[in-house]
């Protein structure tokens, strides 16, 4: 287990070494080093605000570095623009706005081949083989697809450039657990073809399980660097950054306990982090669910938005959605309280489950 400073393998396909920089006068990264070897998967994890996505953007040339260097296949590309880095063999899939929603699936993939002067039909067939659902929906507008399918389009479009390195910024954000597992399986398949994968991922435990190398960032600097399995086994990493994951399927909870009275609370404990995957399909009729937390000592994140809980009142942290949605709730810190999961139809709550949650570092 190594801590900062990190010395990358000089033969790595992609190296961002000793990067310092940020936005304007404020530095977000501080002597940060990230690297990935050929055909391997490197994962960047860490708490909110650690600089994970900023490190990815720095490697891709989306912000200027005050110090440090980025090398691709041994070539210094520090001063190159993002589009020039794509031409050199880098593919990048941002977390949001990563498709052309009004274009068809096939048109999105074709847009990924805009820098190529050769016949790209074989590459497109490879992508359809990797993501079979995209072949079935190739004439459908990409904006009409599910979240997981849109991510497949975004990854496929990046692969159309035939990159040597594929960079993914939180590819499983907002998708269901089943789709998340499928995406990770496809990422493994991509790496087996010899393409290097550099990934920022909020689902740290699952990402480290497939990672050859893991980087834990804290406040823009390297904190831990090792293999994915070594990081998963390290007690300090588990206690501080991983914790214990628990998944709740809301329909099953509601079916088993439509309305828990006071004193009939279910109790759950965790280490430093608990992830609740709430799986509740919503229809066009306005069905949805709400979440509220009454307690203190925990930081709450939902859908990538961090919300500070009110210590002496009820905090409403979710509202209504249309279509089929999957929602992820992350509780981090040392504290506890009551979490209510309420299924609603229109403006009225119909069923409520109350959970007693307590998180404390072990």
Give a verbal description of the structure.
The protein has 362 residues and is of the alpha/beta class. It is built from eleven helices and 17 strands. It has helices spanning 52-60, 82-88, 105-112, 121-130, 132-136, 147-159, 177-192, 204-210, 228-233, 235-242, 250-256, and strands spanning 14-23, 26-36, 41-45, 65-72, 75-76, 90-93, 165-169, 196-200, 213-218, 221-226, 266-270, 273-281, 287-302, 305-307, 314-316, 324-345, 348-359. Strands 11, 12, 13, 14, 15, 16 and 17 form a seven-stranded mixed β-sheet that branches. Strands 6-7-8-3-9-10 form a six-stranded mixed β-sheet, with helices on both faces. Strand 16 (324-345) and strand 17 form a beta hairpin. Helix 3 runs parallel beside helix 6. The longest helix has 16 residues, at 177-192. The radius of gyration is 21 Å and the shape is globular. Mean pLDDT is 74; it is low at 244-290, 307-329 and 342-362.
